Amino acid sequence: MSLKGKNILLGISGGIAAYKMPMVVRLLKKQEANVKVVMTEAAKRFVSELSLATVSEEPIYTDIFPARLDTAADWTQHISLGEWADALVIAPATANTIARLAAGLADDLLTSSFITLRPNRPRLVFPAMDGEMFHSASVQRNLRQLEEDGCKVIAPESGFLASGQCGTGRMPDPERIEEIIEEELGDIGKSLLTGRQVVVTAGPTREKIDGVRFISNYSSGKMGFALACAAARRGAEVVLVSGPVALPTPDRVERIDVESAEEMEEAVTRFHQSCDLFIGAAAVADYRPETFRAGKIKKNNETMDIRLVRNPDILAGFAAQKTPGQLAVGFALETEGNEAYALEKLQAKQLDMIAFNTYDGKSSGFEVDTNQITLFTADGTRTELPVMEKKEAAKRMLDALEKMLEKK
Ligand SMILES: Cc1cc2nc3c(=O)[nH]c(=O)nc-3n(C[C@H](O)[C@H](O)[C@H](O)COP(=O)(O)O)c2cc1C
C-alpha cells in the first residue's frame, strides 16, 4: 500500500504536539503524496509556517480572506481545499478545534475545509491534549459527535504529556501517524472495489415466536462487519444489512438494521440491480415460526409445539437473478470439516465464491475474533487460509474477489 499521488490535506491546530507535524509532512512526501497544510492562527504559535512550507513545498493556508485584493488569487479557498483533498487529517486536534468541528463552525480555513471535504473522503482526527482535558465531558461528547458524523477519531496514547503529567492525550509519533494514515487511506483508488457497490449481510436474524420471544443463533456479526469495513477502506460504496448485533458501524458504511430474515430479504432486494458484489455473511435463520402470537404466550401446558416454515434464501435469491458482471459470495459454516457441503452449496446456489469455515467455539466460527476459512471459487480454485483475525481474513477474501473482478 502506498500514498503515492494522494492529495492529503493536513489540518494543524494549536496544541503543543504541532511540533511533530513537519516530520509527518516529510514522511508523507517521501511516499510521494501531495500534501497541503492548513493551520489555525493558534497553531502558528507552536510550529513555524516556514518549516511546514519548506517540507510540503507548498504555501501554508490559514486565511479564509485573501491578504491582498490586487493580485490574482483563489478567492474561494474555503471550498477548493476541501474539493482538492482525497483525505483530511487533523493533527493535532485541540479541544477547541474539536468543539468547532463538532458544532459545524466554519470560522477559519481548517474548519471550512472540513465541512467542504467531498463526501466519502476520510477525515482522520488526532485529539492531543492534557489527560484531564481529554477525559472532560465536553471533549468526549464532541468526539462522539465527530464519530457519528463519519470521522475516524484516533485515540491518543498514554504517556508523558507536555503538561509534565502522565496520562492519556499524547499524539502518536510521526512514524505511527504515517502508518495510521496509510492504513486508512492506502487502499482507496488502487483497488478494483473503489467506486463499486458492495452489499454485505451480517449477524443473526431473529424470528419472532410471540411479542417477547424469538428464535435466533449465536452469530456476532464480526465477520460481516470486518468485510464491510475492509471494502469501505478500498473505496467501495458499502451497504451493510445487519441483524441485531452489538457492533459499531464501520466508517463510511451505510448500515441498515433489520430483525427477521424477511426484513433482511426486503432490504437486500433493493440493491439487487445496483450492486457489484453481494456477500452473504449473515447467519440467516433457516426457519421461522409459522404464526406469530401477539403478547406473551402463557405457560399453561406441559409442552408446546411451534411449527416452523422455511425462510427465504436471501443469497440464492440474489444469485439466481444476477447479471454476468455481478458476484455472489456466501459462507458455509459447519461444525465438522465437511468441505463437500460447501462445494454443493457453491453449485446449488450458483455462487462465485464460498467461504467454508468450521465452528469449533474457540478460534473459528461464531462470536470469536478469529476465523479459519477455506475459499472455493466457481472456477474450481481452493485456497485454505490459516487461523487469523477476522479483519485479516476479510482482506484476504477481498483480495481473492478482486482477482475475480479483474477477469470479469
Ligand atoms: C503552551 C500551550 C500548550 C497547549 N497545548 C494544547 C494541547 O495540547 N491541546 C489543546 O487542546 N490545547 C492546547 N492549548 C490551548 C490551545 O492553544 C487553545 O485552546 C487555542 O485556542 C486553540 O486554538 P485552535 O483550536 O484554533 O488551534 C495549549 C496552549 C498553550 C499556551
From TrEMBL:
Provide the Flavoprotein domain boundaries.
Answer: 6-179
Q: Where is this region: Phosphopantothenate--cysteine ligase?
A: 198-408
UniProt GO cellular component terms: phosphopantothenoylcysteine decarboxylase complex
Please state every residue range assigned to the domain named DNA/pantothenate metabolism flavoprotein C-terminal: 193-403
Q: Which InterPro entries does this one have?
A: CoaB-like_sf, CoaBC, DNA/pantothenate-metab_flavo_C, Flavin_trans-like, Flavoprotein
EC number(s): the record gives 4.1.1.36, 6.3.2.5
Which keywords describe this protein according to UniProt?
Decarboxylase, Flavoprotein, FMN, Ligase, Lyase, Magnesium, Metal-binding, Multifunctional enzyme
Region (Phosphopantothenoylcysteine decarboxylase) residue ranges read: 1-197
Its UniProt pathway annotation is: Cofactor biosynthesis; coenzyme A biosynthesis; CoA from (R)-pantothenate: step 2/5; Cofactor biosynthesis; coenzyme A biosynthesis; CoA from (R)-pantothenate: step 3/5
Q: Which residues bind CTP?
A: 286, 296, 312-315, 331, 345, 349
According to the record, how does the cofactor bind?
Binds 1 FMN per subunit.
- Gene3D superfamilies hit by this protein: CoaB-like, Flavin prenyltransferase-like
The record's annotation in SUPFAM superfamilies points to: CoaB-like (SSF102645), Homo-oligomeric flavin-containing Cys decarboxylases, HFCD (SSF52507)
Q: Does the keyword Ligase apply?
A: yes
Which biological process terms from the Gene Ontology are attached to this UniProt entry?
coenzyme A biosynthetic process; pantothenate catabolic process
Q: Which cofactor does it need?
A: Mg(2+); FMN
Write out the GO MF terms: FMN binding; metal ion binding; phosphopantothenate--cysteine ligase activity; phosphopantothenoylcysteine decarboxylase activity
Described purpose of this protein according to its UniProt entry: Catalyzes two sequential steps in the biosynthesis of coenzyme A. In the first step cysteine is conjugated to 4'-phosphopantothenate to form 4-phosphopantothenoylcysteine. In the second step the latter compound is decarboxylated to form 4'-phosphopantotheine. Catalyzes two steps in the biosynthesis of coenzyme A. In the first step cysteine is conjugated to 4'-phosphopantothenate to form 4-phosphopantothenoylcysteine, in the latter compound is decarboxylated to form 4'-phosphopantotheine.
Tell me which NCBIfam families the record gives: coaBC_dfp
The entry assigns this protein to a family as follows:
In the C-terminal section; belongs to the PPC synthetase family. In the N-terminal section; belongs to the HFCD (homo-oligomeric flavin containing Cys decarboxylase) superfamily.
Q: What is this protein called?
A: Coenzyme A biosynthesis bifunctional protein CoaBC
- Organism this protein belongs to: Prosthecochloris vibrioformis (Chlorobium vibrioforme)
The gene from which this protein is expressed is coaBC
